[in-house]
Design goal:
Elements: E1 14-20, E2 24-31, E3 34-38, H1 43-53, E4 56-61, H2 67-70, H3 73-80, E5 83-87, E6 97-99, E7 104-107, E8 110-116, E9 125-129, E10 134-138, E11 141-142, E12 145-146, H4 154-165, E13 172-175, H5 180-190, H6 195-209, E14 217-218, H7 219-225, H8 234-243, H9 251-263
Parallel strand pairs: 3-4, 4-5, 5-6, 10-13
Antiparallel strand pairs: 1-2, 2-3, 7-8, 8-9, 9-10, 11-12, 13-14
Amino acid sequence: MTPSTEPGPSTGIRISPIPAFQDNYIWLLERAGHAIVVDPGDAAPVLRVLDQGKQRLDAILLTHHHADHVGGVSALVAAHGAQVFGPATSPYAHIDVRLREGDRIGTLGQDFSVLEVPGHTLDHIAYWCPALEALFCGDTLFACGCGRLFEGSAAQMFASLGKISRLPEKAKVYCAHEYTSANIRFALAVEPANEDLIRRRDDCAALRQRGQPTVPSTIRLEKASNPFLRCAQATVQAAVERRNPGVGRDEVKVFAALRVWKDGF
């Protein structure tokens, strides 16, 4: 079993990453023999962990419709009868409860609020649990990065990241991929003198050497070191301007140029 975190002793809920495919994380939340999972792209590793812990899967939370996030849903429902929650606008058919901005769901004795965060896909949502101080954001915000714009626009993704960045700074960010090392390399190309970023590089390298995940991160850490949340910073704007003369200080244009730069990095 991979390392787990304990968000707060008052909840009794443990959160653990279940590795899947090459670099996915399926997030498992468990308490007293009951569990939920977020974005189960593969059923097999989830079923193994549930069987080992003798846990019943109550719910599946989906952030968007990509196959590496929904591919295990049918098998998990067949095995456990779990209820499936997902985006209201998702093209994925097997969703029992379709959710929009501001909707709330209750599971494991906690309330999760829904944030609509389009950009990576048009249907993308995230789940915020204040009691756990935990955000499950799929492929919208990554540790030191953000998702590619497969369906949405740069303006949509910029607005979505802005919404996320307004959560409490101590909030933990549970993204769906282990992309941190590659993202940090790009971030250092943008801000090579960012001391928070340099420390983050060293901390993450140590974690990976021990075979440990680099996530969750925190909103505070992302705002200090993630270039996609720093489009108002003069250092980021200057780096983008050197590559794209005329972009100027328009934050959406800076973000769009950063995303194109990262795509080809």
